[in-house]
Amino acid sequence: MKRLTWPSWMPIDPYILALIATVGLAALLPARGAAADVASGASTAAVAFLFFLYGARLSTREAMDGLRHWRLHVTVLACTFIVFPLLGLAARGLVPVLLPQNLFEGLLFLTLVPSTIQSSIAFTSIARGNVPAAICAGSFSSLAGIVLTPLLAAGLLGNSGGGFSADSLVKIVLQLLVPFLAGQLLRRWVGGFIARHKKILGYVDRGSILLVVYTAFSEGMVQGIWHQVSAVRLAGLLVVEAVLLAIMLAVTWYGAKALGFNRGDRVAIQFAGSKKSLASGLPMASVLFGAHASLAVLPLMLFHQMQLMVCAVIAKRRSRDADDTAPPEVTAPAEGRVEETRTAVGTATRSG
């Protein structure tokens, strides 16, 4: 029997559709009362388990080996946690003409989230870039984001970002940092189990994120915050995010060239430095914003799908550019690249 696959012409990944369906479920059947308490407790446990898995999966040895290419990693971190937030702050000038305050706060939070790991690797591989550098850059960004994202949110969003306070800081330490460190400490004993059951745990990852999304949007529905956002405002948000992505793609590519990086490193910098992680951002938002998390994560969800679609096209183009200069013996078969490109969006979304 022929195995059913997601159509290659369909630009939206099935997991994105699952996220949209979860939002729809929260709109139609939001958790209330005792059900909301159960959903909130389960969401808290899911976030802690997610970051435990992140810690257990991160190879400390690989991360240390990657320090040898420190200039590249510093460049990616600067793009992720300096250039991105500066652009987010610049968008304040669009309030309230194009963006309402609540969507601006979500957009600013988006710029504070760490980079992706899996999608950076997938697109760098397709584009014939420096894959080991992409692995280390994504890992460093995710690790730094556990500390930098909450600190930047405290400094740039303050109490307007859903009530960030000392209590939020305690929650961050207990729900994010402690499980991550526990995963790192126990990696020696649980790493093999996680590697052998990677596929099953991948479903656990995605299911946990769906639970976080359902809980956040349920709280938003109960509080009636969706009445604050119109279709025109959402369209304005999409335009702003498209411009933001275009600027970061240009900055990472041409900026890396100006800094003297070779083509392979420039590819890794572009894909690792221009994207934001949905997998890390959603759990962090649930901790940082509480009941306001639904609007806070909306810009991130839209940006995530946009970056996957755009970067899939760019990666395919970069692979053709590499063919023009690569020796025949290192050039992969064309059909292999086509298949990689068709599956890139799905692969990247699963861990992005």
Describe the structure.
With 352 residues, the chain is mostly helical. Helix content is 78%, strand content 0%. The protein is globular, with a radius of gyration of 20 Å. The protein starts with 13 loop residues before the first helix and ends with a helix. The model is unreliable at 327-342 (pLDDT under 50).
Question: Quick summary of this structure?
Answer:
With 352 residues, the protein is mostly helical. It has 14 helices and no strands.
User: What count of helical segments does DSSP give?
Assistant: 14
Oligomer: single chain
Q: DSSP strand (E) fraction?
A: under 5%
pLDDT below 50 for ≥5 consecutive residues: which ranges? 327-342
Can you write the helix and strand succession as a string? HHHHHHHHHHHHHH
- Give me the secondary-structure category: mainly alpha
Q: What's the gyration radius in Å?
A: 20 Å
- Separation, N- and C-terminal Cα atoms: 31 Å
| Main sheet: strands, sense, barrel | none
What level of helicity do the residues show? over 70%
- Apparent shape: globular
Determine the mean pLDDT: 80
State the total count of DSSP E strands: 0
Label this structure with key terms.
14 helices; mainly alpha; 352 residues
